[in-house]
Design brief:
Elements (H helix, E strand, L loop, with lengths): L35 E3 L9 E3 L5 E4 L5 H13 L6 E3 L29 H7 L11 E4 L4 E4 L2 H10 L18 H16 L1 H6 L4 H23 L11 H10 L2 H5 L14 H11 L10 H11 L63
Helix pairs in contact: 1-3, 1-7, 4-6, 4-7, 6-9
Length: 362
């Protein structure tokens, strides 16, 4: 997720960024650092870095849906030992995501206070948003890539030598053509569609974004009424990409972004599908609802000037039976569920119905 920029020096270090531009529709900057980490990569200067366990650190804020994808895929594939995880806090100012959850406000591996430092170390004065997820080369401290869509695909393909036993195939070769079309529509109309509603700068821009969003959600409701997962019988990359938007829909997008034709809980197939995934190891156990709400309602000051964070909605219904087993399917295909979340990477107690405050493990 990108930071907005501000030319007002009096607010240079506040959270207030320019997310909404009067009279304009929202257009996401999709120019990312295109470097990749490849199994046969041997030339970082040419943008091809080598796969090497322990060399890289994934910086991924739980609040951000694009970053949440990488946390899920890393966990499903069992890459925890190969790629370490740094977790910025839920809010940031116009300069950068910050490591305010860590002791002394510094990432314990990189030793930096702001993700911006890793970007600037490689690209002095980097002119675009300091976004998460980002992968940082630990020895040099420089950012390698922030191309969120490619990162998770490379986790599946280029990092296969470091997958856990029983890791699912999230990117099956025989489905890649169809999945590309599904992923494109989900990204443009749903993942980014909620932002086009929330950051619309005119009534016409909002109306158009709203209509496009709900056309896509109706299509998904129909598609998922007859099959358990987006691509059929097993979980794939496509489900990860849709889930991180759905899990934020009622807490944030329905109200904050005015995507309010219906709540997710009022869409039978999508709501059951979302609960199915939430209750699947690797999905819901990565979600921090408190950080999600803090991020959107505090950072987007031009959308929510009071920065008041709502207390609702009630989240207990995420654990209700979903009934999707009746559609058949095998969540992990021929693979197995991931191991329980490691203690150091668990969501804070009380921030997720899977981690109640009274959880004795905490």
């Amino acid at each position: 997720m990108s930071q907005a920029t501000s030319t007002d020096q009096s607010t240079a270090f506040s959270t207030r960024g320019a997310y909404v531009h009067t009279g304009e529709e929202f257009n996401r900057d999709t120019n990312y650092i295109e470097d990749r980490i490849l199994r046969d990569g041997d030339n970082p200067q040419a943008g091809e870095w080598p796969v090497e366990a322990g060399r890289y650190r994934l910086i991924a804020a739980r609040a951000c849906p694009w970053a949440n994808r990488t946390i899920i895929v890393r966990r499903l594939l069992g890459l925890e030992d190969a790629i370490s995880l740094g977790l910025p806090g839920p809010t940031h100012d116009v300069r950068s995501w910050t490591f305010d959850l860590d002791e002394d406000g510094r990432d314990p591996v990189l030793g930096i206070e702001r993700l911006q430092q890793a970007y600037f170390k490689r690209f002095p004065g980097y002119p675009r948003g300091i976004t998460v997820p980002a992968i940082v080369d630990v020895p040099s401290g420089v950012v390698v890539t922030n191309n969120f869509a490619q990162i998770t695909l490379d986790f599946s393909t280029e990092w296969s030598g470091h997958h856990r036993d029983g890791a699912p195939d999230l990117y099956p070769e025989h489905l890649r053509g169809e999945m590309a079309a599904v992923n494109k529509r989900v990204f443009t109309e749903v993942n980014n569609g909620v932002y086009r509603c929330g950051f619309a700068g005119s009534q016409d821009a909002y109306n158009n974004a709203y209509d496009r969003l709900w056309t896509a959600l109706d299509w998904l409701e129909e598609r998922l009424a007859g099959q358990r997962y987006l691509m059929g019988e097993t979980i794939t990359e496509a489900d990860v990409r849709l889930f991180t938007t759905l899990v934020r829909f009622d807490p944030v997008y329905h109200g904050h972004f005015k995507c309010n034709r219906s709540k997710l809980t009022e869409l039978p197939a999508l709501w059951a599908y979302a609960r199915d995934l939430f209750q699947t190891p690797g999905f819901g156990d990565t979600v921090d609802f408190v950080q999600i709400k803090q991020h959107y309602y505090i950072v987007h000051e031009d959308v929510n000037p009071t920065q008041i964070v709502p207390q609702g909605p009630d989240l207990a219904n995420w654990l209700e039976p979903h009934g999707r087993e009746a559609l058949g399917g095998r969540p992990f295909g021929s693979g197995t569920a991931p191991d329980p979340v490691r203690p150091g990477e668990r969501v804070t107690a009380g921030h997720n119905p899977l981690y109640p405050v009274q959880d004795p493990a905490r």
